Amino acid sequence: MKLRSYQIEDTPEIINLFNDTIHNINVRDYNKKQIEAWASAKLDIEMWINRLSNSFTYVAEENNQIIGFSNLEKNGHIDCFYCHHAFQRQGVGTKILDGIELQAKFLGITKLFTEASITAKPFFISKNFIVVKEQEVEYRGQLFINFVMEKILNNSIEK
Q1: E strands, 25-125, where?
Q2: Exposed, middle or buried: residue 7 (CB in 10 Å: 0-12, 13-18, 19+)?
Q3: Model-level pTM greater than 0.85?
């Protein structure tokens, strides 16, 4: 598995990974209407290109297949964080988060934060994020529970 920077031509595969992960993994914690709202078949590729191009986006790849991705915004916000449903619990998320933390330290970011799904919360807890608050958010007419989580970084970069 290798970690690399996002390229615009990755976008269709990333959108498919996003949809597949939600329909195969997050379905354990969210109902059918929530899943349909979250991973709608009508996703806007231009919106995705904009979202991923305007942040530090990392792609985990194995045998030329994208198996995970995430993006870090300049303020320390982790926007997306998804691992392919067939590659769960194989170190993909850890490798991506390690890359994000290294980039954050390089940028002088002292705190990472995210809005983790019910499904992703245990992963982030295992990586020393703490729950700041549970919240209910509305998206495409559906209410979702997620968790505002954060992690304070030790800003020394090991050389």
Answers
A1: 56-62, 65-72, 77-83, 111-117
A2: exposed
A3: yes
